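Annex B. Sample input.
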Amino acid sequence: MSDERPERWTQANVYPDMWIDPGDDPRNSDGPSPDGELATLQEYLADYRLTLRMKCDGLDAEQLARRSVPPSTMSLLGLLRHLAEVERDWRGWIGEPLPKLYGKGGDFDAVAADPGMVEAAYADLAREQAATDAALAEHPDLGERLGKDRIAVRELMVHRIEEYARHCGHADLLRECIDGRVGQ
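Annex B, continued. Sample output.
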């Protein structure tokens, strides 16, 4: 790992500690917040998913595959693959377990600076998100309990938000190490 540290940078003009001005942030809306608990949870999940994609925007395969600090194998590309894997796992909580996409530990350990791998990771993530969303759309009652462990839909939704939120924090630090872009 190089000792060179990138200078911190931002595209924001209004708040220099943010990486994009609030008026340009696609996660901000001028309208009222959603009505109801389910709609609120879905909006938070959508915003965290978008945040992850924004943290990866503009980076090439080498930058996306760049590891954090030893002994960690974490990278932005690894996070994309990991979240595809956990979306798939969550469907297993609802019904029958599905086989791993990348094998044991392959979401992080098998990452390479390969444009094809990057393209596949984005496609895998989009497909697995859509499949999990579709499976949960069949269960709009947040109190309904699903799967062999009888997990409540509400708990599963909150767990999904927590997983993305935690990894968006990792993505903030990974991105800043890559090119100095600050978090928000």
